[in-house]
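Posting for a labmate who doesn't have an account.
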Amino acid sequence: MAETGPFSWISDTLGGLFKQEQLDPKEEIFISVLFALLGSLARADGVVTAEEAAHGEELIDRMQLSKAGRKLAFTNFERGRSGGLNVEAELNRFLAVFRQSSTHSEQLIEALLTLARADGRMRIPEKSWLTRVGTRLGIDADILKQRIGN
């Protein structure tokens, strides 16, 4: 039986892209920004829960990343989780390659929303963080508010 849900959608959409050992520059940017932001979001409320860390690892597995891709993902998740990540700079890197409101932007916000819900609750700092990032990614403010659950 096929799995459903946001991670399944990301896996189905992106999984085949990352099986090769060598990552192309666009893939590197997508993976590094995605996992740095996931790490930063996990820390946004001051506590990285076991559920949030597990969801990050699950996404790595579902994306079927190569060894190089897995290392890049883990390194960037830790970079984001350690604090002090310049979220604006990460978004600038992402948006220099992928357009606002693109499929990649949608995949990025969906992965972030899923992580924010991983521990069963979304706190105000996480909602604020997601609103700022979603707006930069070109997500309509009303739709974003609905998706976040404000």
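Reply:
Got it, the structure tokens are right above this. The first helix runs from residue 6 to 14.
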